[in-house]
Structure to design on (605 residues):
């Protein structure tokens, strides 16, 4: 691995002075393999309780923070969420409460004031009611091999603090997961504008679409879903002047995404979504978020490979590997003991079978002369058929198996009619044609002289390297005011990738990625590196080279460059010139000054 570190410089434009400065950038290299297309799903379920504070007792006497299905409206600041307007379910959404045994059941209004064990929650005992919002009926695409997912839900739930003195709602969440395990949940946010300083303030807020309500890391996309705790700890946000400042030290220091906090500032709930130094900080980190679905496996044809099929000698051992041996409803259930009524797997046989041998063709068992046999079944069924001592081998959940078979024959078997081979077919009386496979084997005669000649392989030659095209890696110039933000843009100095590798047996690939550290000024100001984004580009290259995905500033709902992001990758040994357009979007409240950040370029090959 090859890496390079650069310093980045940025100057904010103020009304009092203008100053130009350069932003120096670096990058990182990551190889991205190709994957099969994803599987369409429906009926996906989204479950999230936001955080413990959203289910805790509030400090105003007699009030609690709560979740309600749907949108709970109000007409004035005096309105509260009561048993008459609180909703356990609404459309695809329902509110569930954690039970003493860890399971979830339909929530009740009375249960908003007790924990899972029935103990009343108070502002002093630190307990919470353990509620989550569940939205069913999500649709989208999941690619388990690639580790990606895109799922959209239709539904709303309300988060009401102080029994509804302040409230906001989340509508139609959308999940996006990238192949590196990072992801976002976006949604439309609505609610009412209130203020702790002005109890009479109450105004309906215009719904804001595409707000990032959660960022995710370490997502493991499986065929049935995943559970992940959204990012919070260690995250920083910018808040308007006069707001409660974020406290960035301590075990519970952190924040929800910037765009989510920005909206909550308008509802009067802003400081409940980042660490502010109060007793509630311990309850503010995000709660685990669960996504569940059924991802139908892609239909796979059962396939068998044998390590050697010709020039064999009696007594030789070969490795037999199978894939695609997946259950198919009752069609693959046994019809006789020991696996009657359950998935019966497949026999893996070395034998000499008649030309017409398949059970699905009506061939009698006498057409199948078995010499050595194993039985591939799920791990849970191995003991049922007698275990390894009786020939049981594990058939993995993904439909694969591997076993060594010794090919011992007798003179009588050599002279008998039929064809030597590795055969597979369904076990326990099941007749299922897709599991019936035949791999022919041939043995060397006593007069044969056997030699195996491998394919010619050229010795590896050449080398890989990269370097910036110029001495200054990048320049952002001077930021300018743009609405409520300051923005700056520029270009990453082109990177020259030289790859002359050839020969050998392994494929040659490369990838380059970049990650930026947080910005800081000499006066003590700082802002997150996630506020910087880029649009990678391939300047010159062969078709094997692909630019990385565009990464937007978190201020614009993107993921930013705080984590490693792919700049470009190649599936073959080839030289290229690559670069990126840079875009920085920071809050207008950012203190003036010259800011620097460190960006690291990493090359993987």
């Amino acid at each position: 691995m090859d890496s390079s570190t650069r310093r980045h410089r940025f100057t904010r434009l103020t009304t009092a002075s203008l100053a130009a400065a350069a932003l120096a950038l670096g990058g990182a290299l990551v190889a991205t393999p190709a994957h099969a297309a994803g599987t369409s799903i429906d009926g996906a379920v989204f479950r999230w309780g936001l955080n413990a504070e959203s289910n805790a007792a509030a400090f105003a006497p007699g009030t609690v923070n709560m979740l309600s299905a749907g949108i709970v409206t109000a007409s004035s600041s005096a309105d509260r969420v009561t048993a008459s307007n609180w909703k356990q379910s609404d459309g695809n959404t329902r509110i569930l409460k954690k039970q003493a045994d860890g399971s979830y059941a339909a929530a009740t209004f009375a249960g908003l004031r007790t924990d899972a064990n029935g103990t009343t929650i108070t502002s002093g005992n630190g307990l919470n009611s353990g509620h989550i919002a569940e939205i069913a009926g999500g649709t989208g695409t999941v690619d388990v091999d690639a580790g990606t997912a895109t799922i959209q839900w239709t539904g709303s739930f309300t988060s009401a603090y102080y029994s509804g003195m302040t409230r906001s709602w989340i509508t139609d969440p959308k999940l996006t997961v990238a192949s590196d395990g990072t992801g976002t949940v976006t949604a439309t946010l609505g609610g009412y504008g209130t203020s702790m300083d002005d109890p009479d303030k109450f105004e309906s807020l215009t719904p804001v679409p595409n707000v990032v309500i959660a960022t995710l890391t370490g997502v493991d996309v499986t065929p049935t879903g995943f559970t992940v705790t959204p990012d919070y700890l260690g995250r920083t946000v910018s808040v308007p002047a006069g707001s409660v400042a974020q406290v960035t030290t301590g075990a519970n220091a952190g924040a929800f995404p910037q765009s989510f906090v920005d909206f909550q500032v308008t509802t009067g709930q802003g400081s409940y979504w980042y660490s502010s130094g109060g007793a509630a900080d311990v309850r503010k980190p995000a709660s685990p978020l669960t996504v569940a679905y059924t991802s139908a496996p892609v239909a796979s044809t059962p396939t068998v490979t044998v390590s050697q099929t010709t020039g064999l000698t009696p007594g030789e051992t070969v490795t037999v590997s199978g894939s695609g041996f997946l259950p198919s409803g009752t069609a693959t259930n046994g019809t006789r003991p020991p696996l009657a009524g359950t998935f019966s797997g497949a026999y893996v046989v070395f034998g000499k079978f008649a030309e017409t041998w398949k059970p699905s063709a009506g061939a009698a068992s006498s057409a199948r002369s078995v010499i050595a046999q194993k039985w591939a079944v799920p791990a849970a069924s191995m003991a049922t058929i007698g275990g390894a001592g009786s020939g049981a081998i594990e058939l993995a959940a993904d439909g694969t198996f591997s076993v060594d078979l010794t090919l011992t024959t007798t003179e009588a078997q050599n002279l008998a009619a039929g064809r030597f081979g590795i055969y597979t077919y369904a076990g326990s009386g099941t007749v299922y044609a897709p599991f019936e496979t035949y791999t022919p084997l041939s043995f060397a005669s006593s007069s044969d002289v056997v030699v195996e000649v491998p394919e010619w392989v050229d010795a590896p030659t050449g080398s890989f390297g990269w370097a910036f095209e110029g001495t200054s890696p990048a320049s952002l110039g001077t930021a300018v005011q743009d609405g409520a933000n300051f923005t700056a843009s520029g270009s990453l100095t082109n990177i020259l990738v030289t790859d002359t590798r050839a020969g050998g047996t392994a494929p040659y690939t490369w990838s380059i990625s970049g990650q930026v550290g947080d910005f800081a000024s000499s006066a003590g100001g700082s802002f997150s590196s996630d506020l910087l984004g880029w649009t990678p580009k391939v300047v010159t290259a062969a078709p094997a080279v692909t630019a990385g995905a565009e990464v937007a500033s978190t201020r614009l709902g993107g993921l930013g460059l705080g984590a490693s992001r792919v700049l470009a990758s190649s599936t073959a040994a080839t030289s290229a010139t690559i670069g990126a357009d840079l875009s920085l979007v920071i809050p207008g409240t950012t203190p003036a000054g010259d800011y620097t950040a460190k960006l690291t370029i990493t090359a993987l090959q």
In short: Residues 265 and 271 are 7 Å apart (CA to CA).
